[in-house]
């Protein structure tokens, strides 16, 4: 149940179309639903603007199915991250409309049509090996209603590839950079644009990459201003942060 649903419900009470007790019954599970093994946050979209996302790693198939079944009752769009094929096959049985994105291992169930934002997020990857994390960012951002564009394999080893796409960089309101190895892509992009850059270090790289730590440290220590850094391989977190920025931009446009 989102803000518009609650407004409609309250209007019906006001007009006498439904009883107060009936409305109270509709709202009783609004804050959260306790399933025993999980407390599904039905209030998330009211607080944050976006519904809760299911992180599948570490959860059993029965637990994931139980959470999805509960979320389906509220007719919200559902996004599940870090979901293997066996998770998708299980969810598909109760939600035939579920779509699986294999490379980033994400499942999306669209119950409400998405109206895309006017503002754009650009997801930039250093190399092709970074695409799974970049795609996690893309699918997340799209599922949250954003207009998204991709710009892949433009790392600093061939910086002319990036410089040849300055028009795309300048057309976006928020840029997500995804890179492993030494993670220099974020600094280069940050030095070229006048907009927020969200950097995602990936675990791509040889031994001294330390599973993404070298890229993380490079991004944290960037001399380019306006760069925020999320955790290693956290394309989801970058997209969610970018979405909150876009949400404020869209609100400002409407008010202006």
TrEMBL record:
<dbReference type="InterPro" id="IPR000031">
    <property type="entry name" value="PurE_dom"/>
</dbReference>
<dbReference type="GO" id="GO:0006189">
    <property type="term" value="P:'de novo' IMP biosynthetic process"/>
</dbReference>
<dbReference type="GO" id="GO:0016787">
    <property type="term" value="F:hydrolase activity"/>
</dbReference>
<protein>
    <recommendedName>
        <fullName>PurE domain-containing protein</fullName>
    </recommendedName>
</protein>
<dbReference type="Pfam" id="PF00731">
    <property type="entry name" value="AIRC"/>
</dbReference>
<dbReference type="InterPro" id="IPR039476">
    <property type="entry name" value="P2CMN_synthase_LarB"/>
</dbReference>
<feature type="domain" description="PurE">
    <location>
        <begin position="119"/>
        <end position="251"/>
    </location>
</feature>
């Amino acid at each position: 149940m989102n803000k518009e649903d609650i407004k409609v419900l309250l209007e019906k009470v006001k007009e006498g179309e439904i009883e107060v007790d009936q409305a109270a019954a509709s709202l009783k599970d609004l804050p959260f639903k306790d399933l025993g093994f999980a407390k599904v946050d039905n209030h998330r979209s009211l607080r944050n603007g976006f519904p809760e996302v299911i992180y599948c790693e570490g959860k059993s198939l029965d637990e994931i199915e139980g959470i999805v079944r509960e979320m389906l009752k509220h007719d919200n769009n559902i996004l599940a991250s870090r979901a293997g094929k066996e998770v998708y096959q299980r969810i598909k049985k109760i939600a035939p409309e579920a779509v699986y994105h294999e490379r980033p291992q994400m499942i999306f169930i669209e119950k409400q049509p998405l109206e895309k934002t006017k503002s754009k997020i650009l997801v930039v990857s250093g190399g092709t090996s970074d695409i799974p994390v970049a795609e996690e960012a893309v699918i997340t951002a799209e599922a949250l209603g954003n207009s998204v564009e991709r710009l892949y394999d433009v790392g600093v080893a061939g910086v002319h590839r990036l410089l040849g796409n300055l028009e795309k960089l300048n057309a976006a309101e928020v840029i997500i950079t995804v890179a492993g190895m030494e993670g220099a892509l974020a600094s280069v992009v940050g030095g070229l644009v006048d907009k927020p850059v969200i950097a995602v270090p990936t675990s791509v790289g040889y031994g001294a990459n330390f599973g993404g730590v070298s890229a993380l440290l490079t991004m944290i220590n960037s001399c380019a201003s306006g760069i925020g850094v999320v955790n290693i391989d956290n394309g989801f977190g970058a997209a969610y942060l970018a979405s909150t920025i876009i949400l404020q931009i869209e609100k400002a446009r409407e008010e202006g």
